[in-house]
Specification:
About 25% of the residues are buried. The protein contains 4 helices and 8 strands; from the N terminus they run E-E-E-E-H-H-E-E-H-E-E-H. The protein is of the alpha+beta class.
């Protein structure tokens, strides 16, 4: 499967559905899982990639409070979905509320997952975090590609 890449503007309809970008739809033919992400966005995984992410989370020690908490949020908010024939996916009301999704949304392709953001929140996040992206060159742990 090709990685999910790019940024797409989409709109929620009155029923809380949005269209997946057509180039990504084949990756979700077997269904998908939507769950709470970090920074108040939503994560969207193929069913297989959700299993892989879930396995990584489950590998953490149960004695770690931080890991238990993350697992609770990640798994308890997960919803199985299947796109309809038009490529629409219902975003459950609890997840729309969590991510403050209104009409205008942005979907990001992040290789193995998608993120759904309220467009205004995504723009604010970019403005607030751009300097950390620019300053990454100063991080000695970063692997250089040039």
């Amino acid at each position: 499967m090709e990685p999910f890449l790019g940024e797409h503007a989409v709109r929620l309809d009155d029923k809380g559905r949005l269209f997946l970008p057509s180039k990504w739809r084949p990756g979700f033919a077997e269904g998908l899982v939507i769950t709470k992400g970090q920074e108040r966005c939503l994560y969207v995984f193929t069913k297989n990639d959700f299993r892989l992410a879930s396995d990584e989370i489950d590998a953490a020690p149960i004695t770690s409070r931080r890991d238990r908490t993350y697992s609770r949020f990640f798994h308890s908010s997960a919803f199985d979905q299947s796109p309809d024939r038009q490529g629409r996916v219902l975003v459950p009301a609890t997840l729309r509320e969590y991510a403050s999704l209104n009409r205008d949304c942005t979907i990001l392709g992040l290789k193995r997952r998608l993120e759904i953001w309220d467009t205004a929140a995504w723009q604010s996040f970019q403005e607030a975090e751009e300097s950390s992206y620019s300053d990454r060159d100063d991080d000695p742990e970063v692997v250089r590609t040039t």
